[in-house]
UniProtKB/TrEMBL annotation:
The keyword Cell inner membrane does not apply. Belongs to the 'GDSL' lipolytic enzyme family. It comes from the Eukaryota. This is Uncharacterized protein. It holds the Pfam family Lipase_GDSL. InterPro entries: GDSL, GDSL_Est/Lipase, SGNH_hydro_sf, SGNH_plant_lipase-like. GO terms for molecular function: hydrolase activity, acting on ester bonds. Keywords: Hydrolase, Lipid degradation, Lipid metabolism, Signal.
Amino acid sequence: MDWSCWSVSLVIVMVIKLQVGKASTEIPPIFVFGDSTTYVGTNNYLPVERARADFPFNGIDYRDAKPTGRFSNGYNIADTIARLFGHKRSPPPFVALLRNQPFFKRNVLWGANFASGGAGLLDFTGRQLKVITIREQVEQFGTVCNNITQVMGESAEKVISNSLIIISIGSNGIFDYLLYNDTHNEEYFITTVMQSYHYHLTNLLNPGARKFGIVSVSPIGCIPRYRVQNPTGECIEERNLYAQKFSIELEGIMQKLSAEFEGMKYSLGNSYEATSYIIDNHLAYGFKDAITACCGLGKIGAESPCLPNVTVCQNRDDFFWWDRYHPSQASCEVLALTLYRGSQKYVKPISFSQLVEDI
Ligand SMILES: *[C@@H]1O[C@H](CO)[C@@H](O)[C@H](O)[C@H]1NC(C)=O
Ligand SMILES: *[C@@H]1O[C@H](CO)[C@@H](O)[C@H](O)[C@H]1NC(C)=O
Ligand SMILES: *[C@@H]1O[C@H](CO)[C@@H](O)[C@H](O)[C@H]1NC(C)=O
């Protein structure tokens, strides 16, 4: 008897079984919420004038150099996270799924992206821009839960509780507050946005969401747009302090909610710590430049947004920053990997990957 051949076929059978098992049980639906950091083109479908990026040089490294709406040369953090969890494509904008009615109910079982560039945690952040506020995004998810129940009946509960909720929001509110409010009262501001975050998370938990991958605010004082305003060229400390405080307070809220809601699991990505580490050690990550925007104009590329009439760098993967506000595709990949299986310093109490494992 030829044992070696037998064992090879046994291994093949096992591999096939594992793959089937993975396809049917381990790839969770993904629902994405937030602002331009996780946004895949919602605003393209809306009468939004300013908060959009569906023109070159955005998308220059995407398939056919297509400007998809993402504020990126290619993919962003939501895309990489979806791929890491086994999705073939990033969940499309919810508004795009709605336009494809015949397939809506089937498509939505894989997830949807509700994020809207320009959105914030407070209702007035982004309202002038006519973007989809986080309140509306959460309402849309409520509708989707109804739709899943229409299709799945009783088993909908399990589908919804196994779904991954990915949220990345908070920077725009801080930008607006520091720009428009003369009294910079950090305590007051952070308390207000945290009440709002708590409220919206509760409205995701109530219809049955239980698994949360949360991305806090990155060191926004270091983005080119603000760094260029500092005569020393350094990061703006006040903005970074708001971001740090945001992460700390959010951890408290997540702990509190997970004690209240049975079965809740969360992974909180400290984008402040993770991004700071990558910027400080950018050479080790393959970035030659962690200061200049690849697409822009003037000093550190930060004197213009990324538009078709500005300059764009040749080697995009060398740059941490894509435009004056957003990280490049290459840096999003590093960030997403850090969230997916990084250490407790960057993602707590478990990593994103552990959200789908039985631990
Ligand atoms: C989804 O649910 C909402 C609210 O329950 C309903 O109005 C809408 O028609 C549903 N969409 C589809 C495609 O079934
Ligand atoms: C500005 O801050 C004060 C308190 O510090 C607050 O009462 C007010 O609502 C804020 N305004 C805006 C637009 O955030
Ligand atoms: C690029 O185009 C925008 C509007 O389309 C305009 O406001 C801006 O001045 C132009 N910049 C340059 C450098 O031509």
